[in-house]
From TrEMBL:
Keywords: Signal. NCBIfam families: TPR_END_plus (NF047558). It comes from Candidatus Tidjanibacter faecipullorum. Residues 1-17 form the signal peptide. This is Tetratricopeptide repeat protein.
Amino acid sequence: MKRICMLLLLLLAGATAGRSQSPAMNGFIEQLEGLNNELTAAIAAGDRTTMETVYLEIAELYNLQTGDVRQAAAPMMGGVWYNIACMRSLRGDVKGAADAFSKALDFGWDDYNYTLNDPDLTNLRADPLFEALARRMQ
């Protein structure tokens, strides 16, 4: 979970430098800051349901973006979808985890070693669906 919080903070830091450039970026950053605060609180509380909900809200927020904002936010989306896959795997929703992990790969998630060792993905890795997904990272 720390991985995506750091990515969100890096995106916020990088995008904040351009705040005066785009009202769309400013609005996106403000919304993302609020979601990041919710996510940080959920992680601290160990509230996986809220974590998944916030990650899905981040994905929805991303889907509403266009142009430069969408381009600037795209690098974090692999991590967002990866963590959605983790939350779904932890609650035993292997099909949902596989779907989310596939989206993470679509956004460039490629941390093969981390994925193979992340205990949050144990249920997904135990399923035959994972094999085909893992091949996409190699």
